[in-house]
Amino acid sequence: MVDSIAGAITVKSLDLYYVIAADAQIPVSGGHGFGLYFHDCRFIGGYQMTLAGLTPVVLASTAQKGYAALFELTNPDLHSNKNRLIPKDELSIRWERILDAEQTCVREVLTIQNLGHEAHDFPLSLQFGAGFEDIFNVRGLVQQNLGRAERPAWRDGRLYFAYHGADRLRRMATIAFSPRPDATHKTAAEFRIDVPAGAARTIAVTIALEEQPEDAEAGQLNQRPADTLDGVAGKLRTNSEEWLEQHTKLDSDSLLLNSIMERSLRDVAMLRSELGSREYFAAGVPWFVALFGRDSLIVALEMLAFQPEIAAQTLRLLASYQGSRTDRWREEQPGKILHELRVGELARAGDVPHARFYGTVDATPLFLLLLGRHAAWTGDLDLFRELQAPVEKALDWIARAGDDHGEGYLKYRCRSAEGLVNQGWKDSGDAIARADGSLAGPPIALVEVQGYVFAAKQAIADLYERSGEAGRARQLRQEADRLRRRFNRDFWCENQGIFALALEARSRPVAVVSSNPGHALWCGIADRDKGRRSVARLMQDDMFNGWGVRTLATSERRYNPVGYHLGTVWPHDNALVAAGCRQYGEDDAALRIFTGIAEAAMHFRHHRLPEAMAGFPRADFQVPVHYPVACHPQAWAAGTAPFLLTVCLGLEPDGFANKLRIVRPRMPGFVNRIELRGLRVGKSSADLEFRRTGDGAEVDILQTSGQLTVEAGG
């Protein structure tokens, strides 16, 4: 089980992103103990700790706080320097690790305590390694190393690693010790430990990271004040608590729900990142610690009821990277919203297009949809007015993209040799397959993307109307209505009782049963009878596995319980499907999904929802089966629980009217009381208490601030 610590830092005007994956078995097994990422360029550092030549035994590990990790180790039977036996479990070794974002370093303290009745002395060795690898190399997507690594060197008791990248950046790692090692050998620091009975000895290790242009002065590097570990931990703890204080606060009578929510909020806090002065949520650890249009937009949307500020910053940031020209290699087109931004060596050197990559079809309508939903919560038109030019460019791109024959659907076709064959959220190469298992042919119009476009046009129409441009609002609503009529005609599969996954080339339906229609239901594009029949189909046993709705039905030819998008269960996907169920009055289905996802979280460390779970039936193992390479934490998985609460409690804001409607509130069976405090709508807020009843839930309005009106019903 791997715990992760993640976040963002800025050093000398360079935006750097770091990740530490802390696995109790790794630091002492001879492998790499952790990975530190400079956004995409990864420093891999590892300890092979030995005591008198032997490896310690791991007892426990945790990275629950997000900014810190803690390992507890002990000794096997050892022979000391005097060949005396040190019995097993007589030494306690506590390994504390903290990310110091302010100083761009990792601080560690090893405390060795003698629990025995005799003094012990023995050698301790820490073996280090470093490899400056681009994330595309780490993932095996690119097989090349463009730069040059210097030979590791010891100077004045410190160990130095350096790498000269093809992007003309010098990346460095400096390892300092307190006390200084008694001896050094190649990349090993060796200590002679002499510890009386009942006493303890400590070794502090600081791993400082630098990334600078090659022509920068090297003389100023690594000159950092030596903050204590407790001091750093205190500042980080304060920052973490201040972040939590900014959110709507939840309390319930369910320890499980409270724990899931706290974990979710801490995880999105870990994934806060910056480009320039604007924050956004990076997509996930370890593979996607970057700005991703789709992911960053969806998690910002999931968090609107709890933390709406980052949504505005995310929208401004993505608008600043909006496509301005036609570039087939980057899949850039005027008006298109960015898919992925990387600043690693390969991206900077131009060997991959991801320094600014646009290979997604759904980020553009999601950009518009988030802008509309953000306005509904905040009651603020200023952001819309500020971004009106990017809005019109985005709408213009949607009108043109892939619609070769004028059907009015938003489609995609990969045009880059380095691009993605599939460009929706299910973007693996085999994700969009026909019933016979063969791959669908482009151009492809995904079912959920048409829903996003429908909802986006409705949302932007509302903003235009509020801005006094009734003609433009009417035009967008007419376009949305025409899309809805065509969609219900062309995507519906009567024999399946659900909407098709997509329309492929020559407008042929990809008639397989998938979770994607649930997103379209969330957007409200389906006719009511078709929407309700779709929910019923999604909840059948070949789709709902007990933990959630699978990405693809077990009855389909391509089904694979560990296929990335071919049968796995994704928490964020289920949150949007549950919202779709609620949209069509199928509240029991939404609660069943909420309950399954929450009960799955019980079986993951710290109740952290992963990116995805395997699709095996719950009855087979009684626990969710881990997806082998799932990101955790992952942003839109962390946003799942806050969004499910927003949806199931029926929170519908109208910030412009200073009104909050609570429509058909429902609560899952494992919780009887939920209290929300500081729920913000417009410039006002409310404290609410929900209590589960036999046929739903009732709400008490504890207090409101400002002019907010709360209307409860259903």
TrEMBL record:
SUPFAM superfamilies: Six-hairpin glycosidases. Residues 15-205 form the Putative glycogen debranching enzyme N-terminal domain. It comes from the Bacteria. Pfam families: GDE_N_bis (PF14742), MGH1-like_GH (PF22422). InterPro entries: 6-hairpin_glycosidase_sf, 6hp_glycosidase-like_sf, GDE_N_bis, MGH1-like_GH. Residues 295-602 form the Mannosylglycerate hydrolase MGH1-like glycoside hydrolase domain. This is Glycogen debranching N-terminal domain-containing protein. It comes from Mesorhizobium vachelliae.
